Amino acid sequence: MATKRKRSLQDVVGQETYSVWVNMLRILVPDGRTHRLAPLVAGMLQYALAVSEEESGEEPDDDSVAQSLLDTRQRNIDRVAL
Fold first, then answer.
1. Which residues of the chain have pLDDT under 70?
2. Rounded to 5°, angle at Cα 31 from 43 and 50
3. How far apart are the C-alpha atoms of 43 and 17, rounded to whole Å?
4. CA-based angle 51:9:38, to the nearest 5?
5. For the chain, which residues make up each domain, given as ranges?
6. Can you tell me the distance from the alpha carbon of 13 to that of 51, in angstroms, rounded to the nearest whole number?
7. CA distances from 76 to 32, 65, 79 (A)
8. H/E run at residue 26
9. Residues near 8 by beta carbon (within 8 Å), at least 6 away in sequence
């Protein structure tokens, strides 16, 4: 049997936080403007990254969202260092 892949932000930030985010976006998006929602979503991703970094000692699966966030952060650090 195939193992379930953790490809959801819910797996990173937890069910309660994820539910709040989804409900908030459902309310804001219909009348929202992209330029106003972008900072909100960026903040959500920054929070998810912070949670991933706190839990990085647990070695997330290679194909998990947590690992993708950590990889992206490392690529950005490497790019700035050049």
1. 1-6, 56, 58, 82
2. 10
3. 13
4. 90
5. 34-82
6. 7
7. 29, 17, 5
8. helix 15-28
9. 18, 65
